[in-house]
Design goal:
This protein is an alpha/beta fold. The protein is built from eight helices and seven strands; from the N terminus they run αααβββαβαβαβαβα.
Length: 250
């Protein structure tokens, strides 16, 4: 029991601390607060576990431990799905590559997006006959479309020839990324074009299922995540997968 208490306190404290630290370094979103939502009850459970031996408190203890046990299994399954879906760039061959957009600050690409673009640039260098679609519209706080910022980065920072880059600047969701990019690829290269896509490693599984829903049989190439928000992105993605499944989007 003592080891269980210590484990609950340490894990709970770590998750709460994660939310506090990341909230100061990143944009506020569900992924930022999820660790605290999971960690705070766990921290309290560890602190009072030795007092929860009778009546309602004993029931609550068993209930919470069962919930956390099921959550651990759920996160393990999600981790396996995400990990097995992601492929290295050197494993993928295609005629066209879709780079899924992410937030930009003003007109500058974020760390997350630059990782995707760096991965895409390496793949394009190894596949010189392929074209690239940069996909993403303009969101709140963005002075340009994500696609235009991505195109500029690939040309100016990575030396990719502008003639190899197709601009898709209307998409506001992963589903639209694929729908609009597919139409653009078919218009320029034909319907039999083989397609791959680049997104952050945790997102490859869900994005691949969305691609299938839009009629694209595409291989997903994993770009590295930003290290200090890996936990937050993983937890948020788990929620995203469940919501997409419930809505029939994957």
């Amino acid at each position: 029991m003592k080891m269980l208490r210590i484990a609950c306190i340490l894990v709970g404290a770590f998750l709460v601390l994660d939310t506090l630290v990341v909230s100061m370094l990143s944009n506020f979103n569900l992924g930022v607060i999820l660790p605290a939502i999971i960690g705070l009850p766990l921290l309290l459970l560890g602190a009072f576990l030795h007092h929860m031996d009778h009546g309602f408190w004993a029931f609550l203890k068993v209930f919470l431990l069962c919930c956390y046990g099921l959550a651990a299994v759920f996160f393990l399954v999600m981790g396996i799905l995400m990990g097995t879906a992601a492929k290295r760039a050197d494993e993928v061959k295609a005629d066209a590559l879709i780079v899924l957009g992410a937030a930009v600050h003003g007109d500058r690409v974020t760390w997350v997006l630059s990782n995707r673009l760096d991965t895409a640039a390496d793949w394009l260098a190894a596949n010189p006959d392929a074209v690239c679609v940069v996909s993403g519209g303009q969101g709140s706080g963005e002075s340009v479309t994500e696609a235009s910022a991505m195109r500029k980065y690939l040309i100016e920072r990575k030396g990719i020839d502008a003639s190899r880059i197709l601009l898709e600047d209307r998409a506001e969701s992963t589903k639209e990324n694929f729908e609009f990019s597919k139409a653009l690829i078919e218009e320029h290269l034909g319907k039999d074009t083989s397609i791959a896509f680049v997104t952050t490693d945790f997102h490859v599984f869900r994005a691949g299922r969305v691609a299938q829903k839009t009629g694209i049989d595409a291989s997903g190439i994993a770009a590295p995540d930003v290290w200090y928000i890996r936990i937050n992105n993983f937890l948020r993605e788990c929620v995203g997968i469940v919501l997409y499944a419930l809505r029939g989007n994957i």
